[in-house]
Amino acid sequence: MAILRKREIDNLAQMTTGELEEFLDSLPTGQEDIEELFFYLEAKLAREECNHSLRFSMQYMMENRLNFPKLSSWLQRNGGFCDCKVLEQIAPEWRKAFDRDDEEVSEN
Ligand SMILES: [Zn+2]
What we know:
The chain is mainly α. It is built from six helices and no strands. The protein is globular, with a radius of gyration of 14 Å. Zinc ion binds next to helix 6.
């Protein structure tokens, strides 16, 4: 198995609530926009195959007037090189980190 450099998204699960807040502040857009992007991509890719580009992501960002250059470079740094990779590489880690209200979060 190839050794991959650790991506920001891989660290989310270990972050404390405070660190997650800092992480969200560092993003080029809000948490909800990113989560909406995942839903948008899931809906699009259910009907059409990924063409190995970020075309649906770009569509979403244009429609919602998000910062495409910044957001797409963040996605790519975290393995989201095309629409299906965003769902495969980023969405699960993101959801693990943010859908853990019931679990105990360790504080520093
Ligand atoms: Zn793809």
